[in-house]
Design brief:
By secondary structure, this protein is an all-beta fold. The chain has strands at about 1-5, 5, 10, 15-20, 30, 65-70, 85-90, 95-100, 115-120, 125, 135, 150-155, 155-165, 170-175, 180, 185-190, 195. It starts with a strand and ends in a 6-residue tail after the last strand.
């Protein structure tokens, strides 16, 4: 297909479609290419109805072998090209949602390369592909600006640990309850009346 005597689109004998290229890759069914910027856009116009979803891209795979989007942001660089690759989707032999990364562009969709996982039950893993809690992080966690970790039942029943940035100290706090120290049984408790200790005290 040509416009202004310039080829714009080609369908090869193998059935691959090239847009902006006369030699679409045999590994792809559709190859979109343009100088400097290539944009694939899906528009849904307002027709007056109220569907549950308008614009969408559907990826249908088979046998749990992975379906998603792979991003190589430097593969076509004129200098310093890199094969590094991000994967977003449902990875190979994984039923949940994954974000993976491979510096060499190999197996970014595999569990071993997963950086963030959302399982079908809603559990989220960062640095682990098999979280056992609503949020599981493999590694250190850092909080900045207002560094607070809080467990919350209600505004009047909550507690946690906080770094006081104005006075530079760690604050362990409880609202509506006590602070209890438990090591194979309760050893001590802070209440509104003070500290109670169960056992010997060494100073």
């Amino acid at each position: 297909l040509r416009t202004n005597n310039t080829e714009r689109m080609r369908i090869t004998g193998a059935g691959t479609l090239g847009i902006g290229t006369s030699s679409p890759s045999s590994a792809t069914n559709v190859h979109l290419q343009n100088d400097n910027s290539a944009i694939l856009r899906v528009d849904a116009q307002d027709g007056g109805s109220a569907p549950a979803m308008t614009a969408r891209i559907q990826l249908h795979g088979y046998e749990g072998r992975g379906a998603g989007i792979k991003i190589k942001d430097s593969i076509n660089s004129a200098s310093g090209a890199s094969s590094r690759e991000w994967f977003v989707g449902s990875g190979y032999a994984q039923s949940g949602f994954n974000i993976g990364y491979a510096s060499d562009g190999v197996q970014s969709s595999y569990a071993a390369q997963s950086k963030l996982t959302i399982q079908t039950d809603g559990d989220v893993g960062i640095g682990t592909s098999s979280p056992a809690q609503k949020l599981e992080v493999a590694g250190r966690v850092r909080a900045t600006t207002d560094p607070t970790f809080e467990v919350y039942e209600s505004s009047s029943l909550r507690g946690g640990i906080q770094w006081d940035t104005s006075s530079n100290f760690t604050n362990i706090f409880s609202v509506g309850g006590d602070i209890r120290f438990d090591m194979s049984g309760e050893k001590g408790r802070f209440t509104s009346s003070g500290l109670s200790v169960n056992g010997a005290v060494a100073i």
